[in-house]
Amino acid sequence: MPLRHIPERTCVACRSLRPKREMVRVVRTTAGAVVVDPTGKQSGRGAYLCRLPDCWRTALRRKALERALKTELSDADGAALERYQRSALGPQSALVTDPQVDEHPVS
Fold first, then answer.
1. Adjacent-strand bridge partners of 46
2. What pLDDT shows up at residue 88?
């Protein structure tokens, strides 16, 4: 039985390649707003981020999302993304990780 193709996407912050279902899609809508797209099907220009809080902080700090979405994030959009990261991804940020373990292995 042949293996099924698994779509992969690249995180705009850490540049790691992961299965699409493990990523969070952020989209610039046709109205210009930047929102999280939990379904992955909303129309507009999209960018993907890992579910790791560090990737979200990096993407916002280095303006990687702005470059990928080809827009400037408004203060409201940035605050909404930070709220999403804290609420939806919050339990992962409480995990203590071993500094010896690479969270983004290169394959």
1. 27
2. 81
Q: pTM of the predicted model, to two decimals?
A: 0.79
41 C-beta neighbours (distance < 10 Å), count: 9
Find out whether 38 and 47 touch, Cβ atoms under 8 Å.
no
pLDDT tens digits, one per residue of 35-44? 999 999 999 9
Residue 96's pLDDT band, with cuts at 50, 70 and 90, is very low
Q: How far apart are CA 97 and CA 24, in angstroms?
A: 21
Domain 8-93 adopts which CATH fold? Hypothetical Cytosolic Protein; Chain: A; (3.30.1230)
Handedness of CA 15, 85, 59, 38 (dihedral sign): positive
- Pairing between strand 34-37 and 8-10? unpaired
| Contact by Cβ (8 Å): 69, 28 | yes
Return the percent helix, strand and coil in the chain, to nearest 5: 35, 20, 45
Q: What is the mean pLDDT of residues 10-26?
A: 96
